[in-house]
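Fold this sequence, please.
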Amino acid sequence: MFTRTLKKTAGADKPLTHHWSYSAYSTFKRCPKCYEYGYVKKLKAAPVYVMERGTTIHALAENYLNGKITGLPKPLAKLRRELAGLKAAKPTCEKYWGVTPKWKKIKYGWLTAKTDAFVLVKRKGKLILVIVDHKTGGIYDDHDDQASLYAAVGYGVFPNVGKVEVEFFYLDHGVVHAYEYSLAKLRRLVRYWKAEGRRLMSQTKFLPTPSKKACGFCGFRTDKKLADGSPGLCDKWRLTT
């Protein structure tokens, strides 16, 4: 979502990106061709109901936590107690974090992450960063990756913390998945994500990897239209039917 395209230099045959996010990373892992369309060529797929619903529910959660909504909206009701506790902690909501390639804090960085809510708390004299991400839809294995990346970015933004905790609020299921990261683990994660970011940013070939998972909700399929009304570009989804 935050990836921008560099201007082509003389002799270059591919536009390169210099700005990435977890969305970009996970899209590349699912299908490099989809990543190229959305994050390198910056084409926009038409919105789908699932995405629009998620955006609406995220806005409800933000307004509830900020006190703009007094009663708990129905889509949030399965995590009533957890959201009430988070609201009482007076979280910061919808905040963008950025880090440089050296993992130094910057407003919009080489890597940018958007947190739904976070709080800094002290426990037994230790400063702890708690990050909360609201999820609609399914519970997926790759959310572990997202949790570790957000923890690593949070550590870059708040280097004085003694621990980072990440909690995913699965609003449709009434389930919370919680992760804890010690300082030693955070340092390892920073090294890992630095390398993953460099690898992603160095890509120049974007081959399609069709699968039911990759193609199921892809907005660049030839049986769909892009946001500007033009036809989709990729027919590899047919191999998965």
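The chain has a mean pLDDT of 90. The chain has seven helices and six strands.
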